[in-house]
Amino acid sequence: MRVVIAPDKFKGSLSAPDVARHLATGLLAGFGQTGLEVTRIPVADGGEGTIDAAIGSGFNRRTATVTGPLGEPVQADFAVRNSEAVIEMAAASGLALLPDGPTSDTAKTATSIGTGELIRAALDLGCRRIILGVGGSANTDAGAGVLQGLGAVFLDEDGNELPGGGAALSRLKSIDFANYDVRLEATDFVLASDVDNPLLGASGAPAIFGPQKGATPDDVTKLDEALQNFVDVLAEATGPQAKHAAKAPGAGAAGGVGYIAIAALKAERRPGIDVVLEFTELEHKLKGADLVITGEGSLDEQSLLGKTPMGVARAAARQGVPVIAVCGRSTLSREQLTDAGFHTVHALTDLEDDVQKCIAEAGPLLEQLGKHIGVYLAERTENKEYLNV
Which residue ranges does the chain devote to CATH 3.40.50.10350? Predict the structure, then answer.
């Protein structure tokens, strides 16, 4: 019997590799006999955890010292396999890197320059296809920092170089591309993102995501104006496509890094889960499996919009493999879960009512759930009836 374990992280508790490891430990203990093969494939939806998924599928971990969101040096991991790289923006420019959390000041000054520097580090290793996973960003700078990290210089009307951050873009007068990395012309980019917001306006990056990063209503207005100025100056320097890109779905992703990915890097935008499942080769590895177990911390309405469990469930359905989900908690109805393709769902809250304990003790609780599933499978190795796991 072969079982594939393909979970996302349990946010705030366990990484996807840790979730898979604990489930596998419980599953094997519960099965209690030889003849069970467990394949662990950590996955993600393109945001935080994407590097773990890449490493788990055969990429090599690399580390670079880059500029953090507030200008401090940070150690950021990325993943490389042959000439392909996977970059997780949050590792260089994420909210989690703000020492005191998001504030009005950080909303205006946080920069994505470290993400540009990570791209350059991948180029130095010979990578010519780069997957850019965005999510959890601290910046609202329309990806201006990415260009700075790649060698562009932003100047005010007096010819002085501007600092990083979205607010400073209100003073942008020109962009010097003299030292811009020429290797980008021969590099293909994939923007792994499910966000379809444009860059500007009522549904743009400052208005929708700015408050999550500490922006006040006044900050949102000023940031939107500053980013509009950036678009205008970039269009003067590179052509009208820069203005068209601001309206493209996904331009508002990651504080506008989606915009610069589309406008300057000519990135192909794809759903994050599709990109991850492709490089992990999950569907191929599901062939011949008897069961797949997926999951994430909270299985809820947002999960149904294309999060990891749904992507795994669709891949399993195409291979005719039964799929069950394990989660910290579920707010979905039985009908919703069935319609989504899950035969059963096991939540940590089934074992422990205290949510804080579920978060703190997720590993042992996952092993308990895994053991329960393993016992059931051991009892049914002959007829393989998994629908009531």
Answer: 2-44+281-379
Cα-based angle 252, 259, 173 (whole degrees, multiple of 5): 115
pTM as predicted? 0.89
pLDDT in tens, 97-109: 999 999 999 999 9
Q: Residues near 326 by Cβ (< 8 Å), separated by ≥ 6?
A: 7, 19, 23, 293, 294, 295, 345, 346, 347, 366, 369, 370
Burial of 216 (0-12, 13-18, 19+ CB in 10 A): middle
C-alpha distances in Å from residue 81, one per residue of 125, 178, 305, 345: 10, 30, 30, 34
Q: What top-level class would CATH report for the domain 58-272? A: alpha beta
Domain covering 2-44+281-379 assigned CATH 3.90.1640.10 in the classification? no
Distances (CA, A) of 96 to 5, 48, 256: 28, 11, 18
DSSP element (H, E) containing 290 = none
User: Quick one: average pLDDT of 147-169?
Assistant: 97
The rounded distance, in Å, linking the Cα atoms of 147 and 57 is 30
